[in-house]
Amino acid sequence: MNKFVVFLGIPLILTASMAWGQAIEPRPVAPRQPEGQISLEVQEYQRLPKSGPVAKRLSAFQSFVDRYPGTQLSLRVIRDAAIFFILQDTGNDLESLGECVQWMGKHLESPAFEWARYRQASDSLILDRIETHVLYARVLASYADAISMGGAAERSAGVYNRALTVLNEAQTEWDNHPNFYRLRSDLAEGIDFTRAWCLHGKGNYRDALRGYTNFLDRFPSSDFVPAALWNASQCLQVLDPSGSQQRMSFYHQRLEEEFPGSPETAMLRSLRNSR
Fold first, then answer.
1. pLDDT of the chain, 275 residues: tens digit per residue
2. Residue 23, Cβ density class (10 Å: 0-12 exposed, 13-18 middle, ≥19 buried)
3. Residue 240 pLDDT
4. Any idea which architecture 2-274 has in CATH?
5. Count of alpha carbons within 13 Å of 244, Cβ hemisphere only?
6. Residue 246 CA neighbour count, 13 Å, CB half
7. Which residues have a Cβ under 8 Å from the Cβ of 73 and sit 6 or more positions away?
8. Contact 11, 267 (CB under 8 A)
């Protein structure tokens, strides 16, 4: 893992993604389909492969969404695909990750999934639509990370920008429903953290640092806190390594005292041992 200690890289994808995965809980399924098709859709959903080759799983996801565009279960299949790529450490599989990004974008930007279709829907369905969009941004950011680590910084900047646009779209819909914070505060966390992450990846360290700092103030008990502490310290290291020692030490101390078993603390110790 030492080669990834520099700043963003794969460790952030892994640790932040694990935190996201822990926050996801099963919710009641209520697909909107004509009578007689509901059971078929649910059955097909339940038969989707939960293991096996990436290409096979992605193909099954694609086929399901093509058959049932715009439904709640299709949203959850897209969400499941995103979580799969985030949690399975597929950062080195640039081709599959890129295919997933194209597939998700193709559907989420299509008329079947446009925001206007969900305006009169249940809170559960609208929340699923927002969550899927946030996860799409997460996959875009992961894809941009992988591109950047391959040496194509200019190309990755465009993908980060796309992720930021997707986050803004999710934020706009989220802001239209003030009651959603009580129901799913983790989505607000995901939007804010991923925005800082994208700015960090683009090299906008000052804006990223501000984002991480605001995140730590706003969500002190979030599962993303260890990643935010570590990433904030890395931004400081780039911006002002000599003048920010006290603040960096504070973030590192918090990691060691509050999150001794976190991957970020392990990276911190590894960095110290390598000096």
1. 222 223 333 334 334 433 444 343 434 344 455 555 558 999 999 999 988 887 888 889 999 999 999 999 999 999 988 888 777 654 457 887 888 899 999 999 999 999 999 989 999 999 999 999 999 999 999 999 989 888 888 889 999 999 999 999 999 999 999 999 999 999 999 999 999 999 999 999 999 999 999 999 999 999 999 999 999 999 999 999 988 999 999 999 999 999 999 999 999 999 888 87
2. middle
3. 93
4. Alpha Horseshoe (1.25)
5. 15
6. 1
7. 29, 31, 41, 42, 45, 64
8. yes
Is residue 124 a contact partner of residue 71, using CB atoms and an 8 Å limit? Answer: no
Neighbours of 49 (CB within 10 A): 12
Please give the Cα distance from 59 to 120 (Å, whole number): 31
Cα 73 from Cα 215, distance rounded (Å): 31
Residue 127 CB burial class (10 angstroms; 0-12, 13-18, ≥19)? buried
Cβ atoms within 10 Å of 93's Cβ, excluding its own: 16
Distance CA 74, CA 69 (A): 6
Buried b (16+ CB within 10 A) or exposed e, 247-273: ebeebbebbeeebeebbbbebbeeeee
How many Cα atoms sit within 13 Å of 106 on the Cβ side? 10
Q: Is 53 exposed, middle or buried (0-12, 13-18, 19+ CB in 10 A)?
A: exposed
Q: What residue ranges do the domains of the chain occupy?
A: 2-274
Q: What is the length of the chain?
A: 275
Tokens of 194: 């991923």
